[in-house]
Amino acid sequence: MILIIQGCTTNKQALYEWGSYEDLIYQSYATPGKQSLEEQAIKLEAEYQIALSKNKALPPGFHAHLGLLYFQSGKIDLAQQSFITEEKLFPESKQFMDRLIAKTTKRRP
């Protein structure tokens, strides 16, 4: 009986590389201002590099959140690039990302 049960188990791999992304989001809402926008962006950039090194996909919203951090920091080009990446990876986000991209275009000097 044990062999049958063991034979039916599978080693499920996560669809996305979450890393500490969820914790970073939680902390940004639970204790706003504790970490600067720059610190948050640096942590997400590190998570991105880890996912790349493991050849893993990042979860929906990751690039959008990073883009918002860039936008709030005045890094418009990086924000647009992140929003475009989110849109390409998750086409269902197209309308929202297009609106965010439009806002970044309006903010340009």
Short overview:
The protein has 109 residues and is mainly alpha-helical.
Largest sheet: none
The CATH class label of the domain at 35-109 is Mainly Alpha
Predict the CATH topology of the domain at 35-109: Serine Threonine Protein Phosphatase 5, Tetratricopeptide repeat
Looking at the overall shape, the CATH architecture of the domain at 35-109 is: Alpha Horseshoe
Total strands: 0
Share of residues in helices: 55-70%
Report the oligomer.
single chain
Order of helices and strands: HHHHHH
**Gap between N and C termini, in Å?**
70 Å
Would you identify the regions where 5 or more consecutive residues have pLDDT less than 50? none
How big is the Rg?
A: 18 Å
* Gross geometry: globular
| Number of helices in the DSSP assignment | 6
Relative strand content:
under 5%
Task: Assign the structural class, choosing from mainly alpha, mainly beta, alpha/beta, alpha+beta, or little secondary structure.
Answer: mainly alpha
Mean pLDDT: 89
Annotation keywords:
single chain, Serine Threonine Protein Phosphatase 5, Tetratricopeptide repeat, 6 helices, 67% helix, 0% strand, globular
